[in-house]
Design a protein that fits this description.
The protein has about 575 residues and is α/β, with parallel strands linked by helices. About 40% of the residues lie in helices and about 15% in strands. It binds pyridoxal-5'-phosphate and zinc ion.
Length: about 575
Amino acid sequence: MKNSLQSHVFAECLDCGHKTSYTPQETNCPQCGGGWREARYDYKTIAKDFLANLAGRPFDIWRFYELLPINEHHPAISMGEGGTPLLKATNLGMMLGLKNLYIKDERQNPTGSFKDRQASITVAALKEAGITETVLASTGNVAISYSAYTARAGIKLWAFLTSLVPAEKMREVAIYGTQVIKVTASYDKTKALANEFAEQHHQTSYLDRGVRSIPALEAMKTIAFEISEQLTNAMGPSPLKGAENTPPWQSPDWYIQAVSGGLGPVGVLKGFDELKIMGIIDRIPAFASIQAEGCAPMVHGWKNNLEIAEPVLSPRTHIATLATGDPGGTYTLLRKRILQANGGAFESVSDEEAFRAIHVLAKMEGLSMEPASAVAFAGLIKMVRTGQIKPDDVVVINLTGHTMPVEKMILGDGWVHDIEIPEKPPEEKPEEGLLSALSRITPKQYSSIAIVDDHPHARRLIRRILQSQGEYTIYEATNGREAIELARKEHPDVMILDLMMPEVDGFSVLDALKADEDTASIAVIVVTAKALTPDEKIRLRGRIHTLMQKGEFLDDDLVGEINTLLGNGDD
Ligand SMILES: *Cc1c(COP(=O)(O)O)cnc(C)c1O
Ligand SMILES: [Zn+2]
């Protein structure tokens, strides 16, 4: 079953209120140009059957598809993301004197962190929109999640990672075939670089913008849906207070998470908010956002009552996952929403406190976690000590992730591109530093290949073969005229050319390329679906490199031909 073109979701501009239908390609408000937009749905209609509809659906992220910006109810890329357990923490609860402490175990997502929610929904939306390349900056886990899902979907991924990201995580990213660009600079500069890179080929690629990316935010809200449903199963439907109209689901008193960019809390808060709008819960929990002391701009902003956080220019923490020095507008939005909802707290803990919490949770609850997640647990311990969290409070804490190292010997050399951006370039303006660094990794330096075919399936197949086998910049043309334009503009090293196309066919493309000295040297591999007549063979003779029969070439044959053409040897 499919909804008609995402008719159930629209994008609302947070600046001017303008509403439009939603597509991933359009990132800004068409009316005011603003980049902050959120998904809205017809909550009234959805609320009528929401709970009844859930019966019989699997407990995973797609369970809530009416409230997600996708059409496909259970896309083929799914690996069982979401639907993670809500564990009762009896031992830690006893130690802290909390009767109702629950752990949302997000380690149990396919790549071991809650970023799999963001990646799965986004990649599903990109696939529906026909987008074939993605760019992102990451402190590690986003890149791992996107790598897995883009690999599964046949989408190419460029991941810009700060050099702070532990080598095991970088290798985890690389094993999926992602282009890893290691940037020796802060995470904020790494993000700026990824932005520029994405802008340079924006026709083809999608850039994840965190909270400003609708699928990313929508994905995170499913955590709230699951928590409420699971808490209701664990504790019974009635919130103690004895209200007349007892809502069907529970919400906790506190939701606690370790925070870096803030996508998680903003999304989870939206989830609780939607449940409240639909009358399924009656209150939104207080939100506790915990940061690492050495990089805690949100905590500083909150405690000093600032609407705009002061960026931390040089983060001082070993916990790279949490090293967002400049949370930008996300902090402002999160603070506003927390104040509008039910209040909360921003706290920081030291790296040492987080490392201690790792031992406590592993030994007391049998849960091993990555340091970034432990920051939330150290924050919980601190908030119980200071009395902000009370013994009767129902507390849910997000165990955001697990580290999964890829062993060194599995990857050969050359899986990473290094870029260093000096803190203060001696003479250049900082922008020049960025641009010159960028020019060294622009895709042009890879061998570029144009795929010319009027059948989308054929183009996709060839693209996937190429992407799975090597590092190529890939262009596509859907007809002969586009192919000639593309050749003049981009000068690909190789053109894979379909002969049978309406209007300007492959023979005419070949004539045009050979007639122009600018394009005459482009190597051409002809791919054809039918046997050629002797006349046609004569027309091709001496002018093309290889003739391949569609459907007959094995993946390796095509890649082998291309590598010979590019002088890359046989493998
Ligand atoms: C991304 C991440 C965080 C921080 O989440 P945000 O919602 O982006 O602030 C915390 N823990 C882990 C394991 C993460 O991967
Ligand atoms: Zn607007």
